[in-house]
Write a sequence for this structure.
């Protein structure tokens, strides 16, 4: 390999002169000649945390980001007039979650929605709340049982079994097996709950009540897809343990993730090491003794001592970066075996939050197997939405947030739909979602307050730098899921190449912001360890210093205990 290294100020690689200052490396860093230079590919949460850690340890860092902004899948839009997150909204669990102290530094306003939510049945009628609460309780119990079952029996559970299969068995235990229409024997007795939707009477009719409950329970189980981005029928039971969340409440970040990303990005911005609009297309390991890893972008080649690759699993699946030599076969298997979900979000903004009919009005709603939208939703895809009007001021807004997943997200991101930011798209999206938002209390068809004024929708499924999807998940067919992830975490130490990102996180953080943070920190710590510890000239800045410049208070506004 014909490569020449001329100190840190300029590197000539295959005849291409690369000025490190031009790469964004400042003079201070460029003068640290003996300090390793670590390339971080991707400026999402994992990459920013890795860069922050390395800078704190005194390492030279160059971050390469394909987009013209940092944050990756954390992205905030103000198209509706107020900020909304197009990627993550939630802090999933609080126990030991590093995003909680980060949210404190950012003075975030966090909202805890009531657990009990209204559910509309397939005919669009509101289910009695006591029935809904009971079914939801049963649902979460089954999810917990499935996690334990998966932990205990993962070696023997067939890879094709899904969480839905498990749910069907549990539903039969709870509500009795399905019976042929003509057979009255084996009738399960109803428990006489007056709130149960049933036709009344005894025997066959009472059994029908249980059958209806079972159907509703299984419909509710489909809402699991709004957490993973894929149908519950594709959720691996064998590796359901990998979906276990951090303990504690789920908190909605009303003030958005943006201030948190700014805090994470601050050290890299201060050091001037972020290279935006610089997609890396190949990583080549040479025989050179120093700076032996070459990163290629469409315009330049950069040489590094070590590299942390944080691009999404979906990008790895599409071979967005070519590795020379190729990745080991086992790692390629991991890339193929792990799955990627498709969760999309649609924010519908109204002149007024008409659904706030009282100060006890519910904050989120579920629409099960809707039969009442045959024109726009003939497949009866389930829907759910959250009210942003419930947030503490000044973050409250008359907006409903719908989550769509799997085939419904494929539909909304297909060429059949125009951007809702156009007049035609606004009309199309309004028609699609009207059957649901029109069912909320306070809706009046003729009232201008009930007509969407702006809509914004995500399009992660068509975003090449998000890997054409939302985040990793664990689908049926997965044979060796835990090992697949470990392979990423181990990285390729012999090549000085490491991997980070939500798909490489410890089990409790997979697919989440917390996991991305942990993984970036972990990969950076491995790099530092591989060089024997912190570099001599430590001039990075700590989170606390960032806080002093980025935010003045350290309270979590509106957090629930
Ligand atoms: C719709 C949606 C909802 C979500 N909801 C939640 C939630 O409520 N709570 C939660 O905890 N998590 C949620 N997540 C998941 C969370 O957003 C991710 O787990 C996390 O942000 C991933 O961070 P990352 O650094 O691993 O990846 P990314 O943020 O994707 O960062 C990777 C970076 O690499 C860049 N890149 C890609 N290819 C290249 C290349 N060739 N060269 C250079 N750069 C490249 C990308 O542009 C990107 O900036 C959600 C995600 C989505 C999409």
């Amino acid at each position: 390999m014909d490569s020449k290294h001329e100190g840190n100020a300029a590197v000539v690689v295959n005849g291409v002169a690369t000025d490190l200052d031009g790469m964004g490396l400042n003079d201070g860093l460029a003068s640290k000649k003996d300090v390793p230079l670590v390339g971080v590919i991707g400026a999402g949460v994992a990459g920013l945390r890795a860069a922050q850690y390395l800078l704190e340890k005194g390492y030279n860092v160059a971050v390469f980001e394909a987009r013209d902004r940092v944050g990756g899948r954390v992205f905030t839009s103000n198209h509706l007039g107020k900020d909304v997150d197009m990627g993550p909204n939630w802090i999933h669990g609080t126990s030991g979650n590093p995003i909680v102290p980060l949210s404190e530094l950012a003075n975030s306003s966090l909202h805890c929605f009531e657990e009990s939510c209204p559910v509309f049945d397939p005919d669009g009628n509101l289910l009695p709340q006591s029935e809904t609460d009971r079914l939801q309780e049963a649902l979460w119990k089954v999810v917990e049982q499935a996690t334990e079952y998966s932990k205990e029996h993962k070696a023997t559970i067939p890879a094709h079994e899904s969480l839905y299969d498990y749910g069907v068995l549990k539903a039969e235990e709870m509500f009795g097996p399905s019976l042929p229409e003509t057979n009255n024997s084996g009738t399960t007795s109803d428990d006489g709950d007056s709130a149960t939707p049933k036709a009344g009477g005894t025997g066959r009719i009472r059994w029908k009540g249980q059958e209806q409950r079972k159907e509703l329970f299984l419909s509710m189980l489909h809402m699991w897809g709004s957490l993973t981005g894929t149908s519950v029928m594709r959720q691996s039971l064998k590796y359901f343990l990998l979906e276990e969340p951090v303990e504690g409440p789920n908190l909605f970040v009303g003030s958005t993730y943006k201030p948190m990303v700014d805090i994470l990005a601050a050290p890299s911005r201060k050091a001037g090491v972020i290279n935006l609009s610089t997609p890396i297309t190949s990583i080549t390991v040479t025989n050179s003794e120093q700076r032996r890893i070459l990163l290629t972008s469409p315009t330049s080649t950069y040489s590094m001592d070590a590299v942390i690759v944080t691009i999404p699993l979906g990008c790895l699946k599409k071979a967005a970066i070519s590795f020379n030599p190729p990745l080991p076969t086992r790692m390629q298997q991991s890339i193929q075996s792990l799955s990627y979900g498709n969760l999309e979000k649609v924010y519908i903004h109204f002149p007024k939050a008409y659904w706030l009919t009282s100060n006890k009005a519910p904050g989120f709603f579920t629409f099960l197997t809707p039969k009442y939208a045959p024109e726009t939703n003939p497949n009866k895809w389930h829907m759910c939405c959250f009210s942003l009007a419930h947030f503490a001021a000044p973050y409250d807004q008359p907006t409903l947030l719908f989550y769509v997943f799997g085939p419904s997200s494929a539909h909304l991101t297909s060429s059949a739909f125009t951007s809702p930011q156009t007049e035609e798209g606004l009309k199309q999206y309004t028609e699609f979602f009207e059957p649901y938002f029109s069912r909320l209390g306070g809706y009046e068809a003729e009232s201008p307050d009930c007509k969407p004024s702006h809509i914004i929708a995500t399009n992660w499924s068509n975003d090449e730098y998000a890997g054409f999807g939302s985040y990793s998940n664990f689908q049926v067919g997965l044979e060796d899921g835990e090992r697949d992830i470990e392979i990423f975490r181990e990285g390729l130490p012999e090549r000085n190449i490491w991997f980070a990102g939500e798909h490489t996180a410890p089990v409790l953080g997979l697919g989440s912001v917390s996991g991305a943070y942990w993984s970036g920190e972990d990969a950076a710590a491995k790099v530092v360890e591989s060089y024997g510890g912190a570099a001599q000239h430590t001039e990075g800045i700590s989170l606390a210093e960032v806080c002093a410049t980025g935010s003045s208070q350290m309270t979590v506004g509106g957090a629930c205990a």
User: Anything to note?
Assistant: The CA atoms of residues 118 and 365 lie 5 Å apart. Residues 1-31, 179-207, 538-561 have pLDDT under 50 and may be disordered.
